[in-house]
Automatic annotation (TrEMBL):
UniProt xrefs under PROSITE patterns: ADH_SHORT
Name used for this protein in its record: SDR family oxidoreductase
Species of provenance: Rhodococcus pyridinivorans
UniProt key word NADP: no
GO CC terms, sorted: membrane
Source organism superkingdom: Bacteria
Family, as annotated: Belongs to the short-chain dehydrogenases/reductases (SDR) family.
Keywords: Oxidoreductase
Any Pfam family hit: adh_short
Record Gene3D superfamilies: NAD(P)-binding Rossmann-like Domain
Family matches, as CDD domains: SDR_c
KW Cytoplasm (keyword) present: no
InterPro entries: NAD(P)-bd_dom_sf, Sc_DH/Rdtase_CS, SDR_fam
Length: 282
């Protein structure tokens, strides 16, 4: 009962107010999925709901909430199940990003990464997947991790804690849920041109410094559009693919890391030294 057609499916997107989540909501709706949308930002979420409906799409339910708040996700799931029954597709897209070295990262940064990027998707899985199993129609789970869920990118320890964690959850569920006909996709974007690029916090670093601006601009130049990422995700669901790459660099980097560990170690160290040189001084 793998998903081969989105028409009529009940499709949840978290982080739907912006970037990849918003693009995924539109891409899914354009293929006939009926949406359940959530995000922390109420006004921006309402705007997305309006635009989906204007394009002729269906939003079954939407509510603003913090996915790191277990009680809030539980209440949301209760409302969704009451209003429209069990879902077919659950896409964990919402996330935040903070980078920094261990001497600068505060406890709150580590906690925010794990609470939002790892516990958030877990709260969603806990609250929605048992009803999918019970319904027996199969379905699909999409977890948006990151290249930083595969590779040791400089200063990404806190972010990678959450994104490697989400990858672990996904790898296990892929096998656990197969017999229930529920597929799992792990999305591992490299750079994507979304508001996240402007909001990523580099602790202790002034992002307006010319060197840092240059680095950010380079990141944005190589970045994929959220629409392209959304298309890849939709294809990943329809073809029941576990790994969903959105750019060649991540696919190649991960392949290389697994096949050629010693040069990977050298390159990662060089990237780290480069980062320290360019961003490291305040
Ligand atoms: P974005 O900032 O455009 O969208 C993220 C959305 O998540 C926002 O609408 C935000 O309000 C929502 N959100 C944040 N914290 C939340 C919370 N506690 N509860 C509910 N909603 C919350 O960012 P983007 O780029 O679309 O990010 C989507 C996902 O893609 C994230 O998980 C991010 O880590 C991941 N990603 C993004 C990359 C990029 O270069 N933009 C690269 C790799 C992964």
């Amino acid at each position: 009962m793998a998903i081969t057609d989105l028409r009529g499916t009940k499709f949840l997107v978290t982080g739907a107010a912006s970037g990849i989540g918003r693009a995924l909501a539109h891409a899914a709706s354009d293929r006939g999925a009926r949406l359940v949308l959530t995000d922390l930002q109420e006004e921006a979420l309402d705007e997305v709901v309006r635009s989906v409906r204007e394009r002729g799409g269906t939003v079954l339910h939407s509510a603003a909430l913090d996915i790191s708040d277990y009680e809030a996700v539980t209440a949301f799931a209760r409302d969704v199940h009451e209003a429209c029954g069990s879902l077919d597709i659950v896409a964990n897209v919402a996330g935040v990003s903070v980078w920094g070295t261990v001497d600068r990262l505060q406890h709150e940064h580590w906690k925010l990464m794990v609470d939002v990027n790892l516990m958030g998707p877990i709260h969603v899985i806990e609250n929605f997947v048992p009803a999918m199993i019970e319904a027996g129609r199969g379905g699909h789970i999409v977890n948006v991790s990151s290249a930083a869920g595969l590779l040791a990118l400089p200063w990404h320890a806190a972010y990678s804690a959450s994104k490697f964690g989400l990858r672990g959850v996904s790898e296990v569920l892929r096998f656990d849920l197969k017999r229930d006909g529920i597929g799992v996709s792990l999305v591992v974007p490299g750079a994507v041109r979304t508001p996240l690029v402007d909001t990523v916090q580099i602790v202790g670093v002034d992002r307006d410094r010319p060197e840092v601006r240059k680095l950010t601009q380079r990141f944005v130049r190589h970045a994929a559009t959220p629409e392209k990422v959304a298309e890849r995700i939709v294809t990943g669901i329809l073809k029941n693919r576990f790994m969903v790459y959105t750019s060649f660099d991540t696919r190649f980097g991960y392949w290389w890391a697994r096949k050629f560990a010693p040069p990977y170690n050298l390159v990662m160290q060089a990237a780290n030294d480069y980062f320290r040189r360019v961003v490291g001084t305040k």
